[in-house]
Design a protein that fits this description.
Layout: H1 2-45, E1 53-65, E2 72-78, E3 81-87, E4 90-103, E5 110-111, E6 118-119, E7 126-136, E8 142-153, E9 162-178, E10 197-212
Antiparallel strand pairs: 1-4, 1-10, 2-3, 4-7, 5-6, 7-8, 8-9, 9-10
Length: about 210
Amino acid sequence: MLSKFLVCTGVGLLDISLFLAFSLLPPLVNNSSLAQAAEVETKKTEVPNDLAGFHFGTALSFTHDLSGSPRIKTATVVNGIVRVTEQQNDIPRLMLESHYFFGLDDKTEFCVLIWTGCISSTAKKWGWGPYVGVQPGTDNVIQAVAMGLMIGFKKHQEDTLSWNLGLGISVDPNVKVLGDGITRNGALPVGETEARLRTTSRAGLQIMFSVAF
C-alpha cells in the first residue's frame, strides 16, 4: 500500500514538474527570438551619418580679389606711360579641401531649389562646419590657401558622396602688383625704364563647390 502511494506521489510530482517546465519554456524562447529579431531589424535600419566628422574632397572654387587694386600679370611702357596689358582679379581654381561637419537636429528641415520639396530626416543628410583648402602650384609648392564655413548634403541617406558649398577667404602668397611709385596709366618715375612689378600676398572672397568622399 505504501509502495503504491509513493509511486503515485512520484508520478504526480513528475507530471507537475513537466507541466511547469513546458509552461515556462515557450515565453523564454519567444522573448529570446523577439529580442534577436529586433536587434537584426535595428541593424538594418541604422545608417551611419557619413557627413559627421572629418572628410576630404576635390573642389572647384572662385575667388574675387578684395584689395581694390588689380593683380597684374603683365605691364609695359608705351611712350613713357605705364600700360597694364593683363590683370586677373577673379580667379577660378581646382583645390583640395578637408572639412569637419557637425550633424543637424532631426527636427531641422531645408527646402532645396534643385530638389523637389523639402528634405526631412536631416540629421543623416545634412551637415555643416569649417573647411580648409589648398591649391598646389608648379612654380610654388602652395599656390593658394583658403578657409571658411561649408554646408554639405546627401540626396539619399545611404549615399557615400556628399555635395558641399562653402564660403570663405582665400589667400594667395605670391601675387604680382605694380611696384612702389609705379601707377597705372601714369608716367614712369625719373630714372625708371620699365613697368616694375613686385610680389605680395592678397586675400579674396571665395565661393567653393566640392564633392567629398
